């Protein structure tokens, strides 16, 4: 049996944080606000 679902996660862009998407650092003046690294 397979269970498949869709979801989403939302974080604000803020100063003073790194922007990390899928474990990759993206050079950008703003980063994601959230717990830990807020990686999506």
From TrEMBL:
InterPro entries: MECDP_synthase, MECDP_synthase_sf
Gene Ontology biological process terms from the UniProt entry: terpenoid biosynthetic process
Coiled-coil region(s): none
Boundaries of every 2-C-methyl-D-erythritol 2,4-cyclodiphosphate synthase domain copy: 2-40
Cross-referenced Pfam families: YgbB (PF02542)
GO function terms (MF aspect): 2-C-methyl-D-erythritol 2,4-cyclodiphosphate synthase activity
Protein name, entry field: 2-C-methyl-D-erythritol 2,4-cyclodiphosphate synthase domain-containing protein
Native species: marine metagenome
